[in-house]
Write a structure and sequence with these properties.
The protein is an alpha/beta fold. It has helices at residues 2-56, 65-77, 151-154, 216-222, 224-254, 256-265, 307-313, 316-331, 356-366, 388-400, 416-423, 432-436, 442-458, 470-478, 495-505, 512-519, and strands at 83-87, 93-96, 105-107, 111-112, 118-125, 131-137, 145-150, 167-173, 178-182, 196-202, 208-215, 269-278, 284-294, 300-301, 342-347, 375-380, 404-410, 427-430, 461-464, 483-484. It folds into three domains: 1-221, no CATH class; 224-254, no CATH class; 260-507, EAL domain (TIM Barrel, Alpha-Beta Barrel). It has 16 helices and 20 strands. β12 (269-278) and β13 form a beta hairpin. The protein binds ligand C2E and calcium ion (2 copies). Residues 274, 290-291, 302-304, 307, 316, 320, 323, 346-348, 380, 408-409, 466-468, 485-487, 492 line the site of ligand C2E.
């Protein structure tokens, strides 16, 4: 059950896992595209400003009128440039296109560009909360020139509306200084990376990078429909798996074949023992093993309810095997020192379809206290044998081992007398049907007499089955029948009762030390 639950949870985990993966991949791809276009714009602004400064450079010598005029002109036509200045060697502004020294500001450490005439630094204005990048062009015979690109030009404010709800974009210098942030005002905010999904895209040409991030909470919100749909889907699949599994187990549990197979494995098929009596001497001859299905709740199922299924399904073979082994362990001991006590097993016609039964019997009884010469195998006449010649051969080989073979239910089958003559068996068991009819049908007596005559000529033993009355015993005894089985003597008994009966009726199994002990 636990295993089933674990299996059923697999789709939920799989869907959850792949949904998370999908959402994250999708969101990351979007962030990357945002970062790429933002970086592209910032690079374009820097390139434009660099080109303008290079153009301007030969036309500006210092802070003279002419130079200021050209600087003003360039600043007005170049979109990203807000201020152009002439600097002294230490980077202090001497004059700007506005004619003065410009707004008060602080300048960060300068970073060199790939084109080593240029350096870039972050400018923070004192008066207003704004930032800009300053490009500085170093000139050989004149003072350096600089151009200011306001943050708003590098990362347009128009993006502000796109960068809300937990999304953010920042332009950073390689020295980690933040140049611009969207939404505006986030410049100083540090971001908790455990709660955000982010991409860091570095420029190949400039010492700048774009960091685009969004909180995971907004991801969950944006993809809520998809995630809910996925979860509903996986829950449905899980319910389906559960339902199918439950159905499967229910069906399996109610499948009689599955139940019966488990009963064999669990040792629920047990032997009962019905005594056979020598009606001349009154001695116990042995017993026939009859299968019973003892359910775990104690109820006893009779063979009529499971033998047909066992035969149809082939489970009769493992069942017979298990029954023989069980009989060995349960009543093996009473066969020691009582070689005249026999034990009979019922075989199925299919057992004679090949000679495997011979080795199987040898293997089972080799390690038991029951000798092969104590064994009787009963073959019913009700079912036709698959191959009469093979069956005869198998029977002969069994007899060589000392095993005796009996035909069961004689008179009821289709084989008739020729069947009996061909098989060469040791014993015939006259069916209860004829015993029942002894006192009522003359016809039945005639059949019994014919069978007895046949047995005599063929040197076979006779056992009368299903003997229920003293009159029947009398009749059989008169007719010279030696052995009988039936309720008049004993019904099939559980092992303990049978053992008690054997010990009570037949003292020959008691060893000398036991008998001296009991005498003392
Ligand atoms: P069967 O081999 O002819 O066994 C005799 C049946 O008659 C047994 O029924 C027994 O309990 C019953 N019986 C014995 N004496 C009397 C009596 O005086 N009066 C009445 N009314 N019945 C009596 P059970 O045990 O129900 O077995 C029924 C059949 O199931 C058996 O008939 C046999 O064909 C089959 N069977 C039982 N155990 C096995 C087994 O281990 N292997 C196979 N292949 N068949 C088995
Ligand atoms: Ca039988
Ligand atoms: Ca029988």
């Amino acid at each position: 059950m636990l295993g089933g639950a674990a299996v059923a949870c697999v789709p939920i985990l799989l869907v959850e896992f792949s949904l998370n993966g999908y959402v994250e991949r999708n969101a990351r791809a979007k962030l990357e595209s945002t970062a790429r276009s933002a970086l592209g714009l910032a690079e374009l602004r820097l390139e434009n400003a660099m080109a303008s400064l290079v153009d301007l450079s030969p036309k500006v010598e210092g802070c003279d009128r002419g130079s200021l005029e050209v600087m003003r002109k360039t600043a007005s036509i170049s979109i990203p440039i807000k201020e152009i200045a002439v600097l002294d060697e230490s980077g202090i502004t001497i004059c700007t296109n506005f004619g003065d020294g410009g707004e008060e500001r602080s300048v960060s450490r300068e970073l060199p560009l790939a084109d080593n005439r240029f350096e870039v630094a972050l400018i923070r204005f004192r008066e207003r909360n704004d930032r800009a990048l300053r490009l500085r062009l170093e000139r050989r015979n004149a003072k350096p020139l600089s151009a200011l690109i306001p943050a708003a030009f590098l990362v347009p404010d128009t993006l502000d509306s796109d960068f809300q709800d937990g999304r953010s974009l920042r332009l950073v210098l390689d020295n980690a200084e933040i140049v611009a942030a969207r939404p505006t005002g986030d410049e100083g905010l540090s971001i908790d990376h455990t709660r955000t999904l982010g991409v860091h895209m570095k420029s190949e040409r400039f010492p700048i990078a774009i960091v685009a991030e969004r909180t995971r909470a907004t991801l969950t919100y944006e993809y809520r429909d998809l995630v809910s749909l996925g979860r509903i889907g996986s829950a449905l699949v899980t319910i389906l798996i559960f339902a199918l599994a439950a159905l499967y187990f229910r069906r399996n549990r109610s499948d009689p074949l599955v139940q019966f197979r488990e009963a064999i494995v669990n040792g629920e098929i047990i032997p009962f023992f019905q005594p056979t009596i020598d009606i001349k001497s009154g001695r116990l001859v042995g017993a026939e093993v009859l299968a019973r299905w003892r359910k775990p709740d104690g109820t006893m199922v009779s063979p009529a309810n499971f033998i047909p299924l066992a035969e149809r399904s082939g489970l009769i073979y493992p069942m017979t095997h298990a029954l023989m082994e069980k009989a060995c362990t349960e009543v093996g001991a009473i066969h020691v020192n009582r070689p005249h006590i026999n034990i009979a097993f019922n075989l199925y016609a299919g057992h004679f379809a090949n000679d495997g039964i011979i080795e199987e019997l040898k293997a089972i009884f080799a390690k038991s206290q029951i000798g092969l010469s104590q064994i009787v195998l009963e073959v019913t006449e009700r079912e036709p044998l698959p191959d009469l010649d093979l069956a005869r051969d198998i029977i002969a080989r069994l007899q060589k081992l000392g095993i005796r073979v009996a035909i069961d239910d004689v008179g009821t089958g289709h084989g008739g007398l020729s069947y009996l003559m061909k098989l060469g068996v040791d014993t015939i068991k006259i069916d209860k049907m004829f015993i029942d009819a002894i006192s009522t049908e003359r016809h039945s007596q005639t059949i019994i007499e014919t069978l007895l005559e046949l047995a005599r000529t063929m040197n076979m033993e006779v056992i009368a089955e299903g003997v229920e009355s003293f009159d029947q015993v009398e009749y059989l005894r008169r007719k010279g029948v030696h052995q009988a089985q039936g309720y008049v003597f004993a019904p099939p008994l559980p092992a303990s009762s049978y053992i008690a009966l054997v010990e009570a009726m037949d003292a020959s199994g008691v060893t000398r030390s036991e008998s001296t002990a009991s005498a003392a």
